[in-house]
Amino acid sequence: MSRVNSYDVVVIGAGSIGCSTADHLADDNDVLVLEKGQLDESASANASAFISDWWYFLEGEYIPGVTEKIREYFHGLETTSDFEFHDQPFISLVDEGERDSPKTEKMRENAEKIPGITYFDAKELASMYPDVLNLDGFAGGIVDTEAGYVEPGSYLRAMKQRAEVKGAVFEFGTEVEEIETADGQIDHVTTTSGDEIHCDSVVVAAGTHTESLVSKFTNLPVRPFVICAAEVKGDPSFSGSVPTTSGRGTLIGPNTAGNLLVGDEYWIEDLDRIPQEFPEEAKEKIAGLLPQLFTGFDGELEYVEDGEHHCPEGITITPDQIPVIDEVGGVDELVVADGSRGAVSLAPVIAVAVQSLLTGSKTKFSMERFAVDRFDLENPEYDLPMITEPRS
Ligand SMILES: Cc1cc2nc3c(=O)[nH]c(=O)nc-3n(C[C@H](O)[C@H](O)[C@H](O)COP(=O)(O)OP(=O)(O)OC[C@H]3O[C@@H](n4cnc5c(N)ncnc54)[C@H](O)[C@@H]3O)c2cc1C
Predict the structure, then answer these.
(1) pLDDT tens digits for 115-136?
(2) Strands 138-144 and 90-95
(3) Measured from the CA of 346, which atom of ligand 1 is nearest?
(4) Distance from the CA of 321 to the center of ligand 1, in angstroms?
(5) Which pLDDT value is given to residue 380?
(6) 109: confidence class by pLDDT, cuts 50, 70, 90
(7) 105 CA to middle of ligand 1, Å?
(8) CA 265–ligand 1 middle distance (angstroms)
């Protein structure tokens, strides 16, 4: 059965990238978002949702305009529905041995270009957060004083609501099966229920399903992984007083209840068998790491019942953890946006990049940073230090 309606853009997936892209494109386009599940089922809806410029914090790389866009976008959403941005500084601790490393040098140099991001030595951090951080063995840390966290469901709802006000249509429970082209142009998408929906452009923001949706056009340099996350019992006073802190391969921060969100990452071997529980080996790892960052956690950790965050379909990552945002397969206006570290935070920037590909609008950053061909697509095998082998 074919539908008569046609759209300027079909966005596949209503995670944070899909919703933000719809919000950005709906100003000037008829946008249809097709989502196979519901708004609260994606990886985005289940994230811890600490908000900062994770691309900068990976390697200290400065991509112009990114941090500013994140802050402007999240604060701009505060006028919609029940959305609230909770201020919570983020600290990336620097080990003594890393004090003069090229990465630390680069982070310190670039911090000067980004308002609100500053390097503090351990003594300064101790006076900023008395009796909170355990700074033994750390030289200091890079602090984003304008970081925060959000409740991810309210974030997705706020973006959807704003896109709908501009005329975007969201359809849930509709799974895209194929993207069809004619003469190197997008023609239509077909759904699993047999509908054909005609459109000029397609944005594929389907998380771990992006790769299979575009496999007939290109190889994507992405690998699926799962973040298993849980809550360690904290104290209501932690919310607002304890910063989100990363160091020695982990990232831990409090939520509104003052419980500490902890996590561990595993490669996914089989998309039909993704672990959802918080595994014992993660508990052992956190028991070793948490007291290295925060004071007061030397005893046995108490986990909050039902505090596990589920990541039912996993998420994706490229070898440099910066997304692919590009037209692929030589097809005009077939755009992929996938594979980013921290895409809840970075979705508004990714949306600006997608918008630029489809409308020719200017960006403050170079689009080459996101090109699919920056990787060797013939040899897609890679590892990342913080992601562990799949659990047997
Ligand atoms: C536990 C956890 C903690 C995290 N913490 C943070 C954090 O603190 N900060 C941060 O910035 N990020 C965090 N992340 C990472 C972040 O969640 C991901 O980077 C982000 O959700 C990816 O967004 P996305 O839109 O690409 O994909 P998704 O959120 O996975 O959305 C893709 C959507 O596409 C839909 N879809 C798939 N196939 C089809 C199809 N064929 N047709 C129609 N729809 C389809 C899916 O149902 C899904 O809703 C965390 C993730 C987890 C799991």
Answers:
(1) 999 999 999 999 999 999 999 9
(2) antiparallel
(3) 11
(4) 14
(5) 64
(6) very high
(7) 32
(8) 15
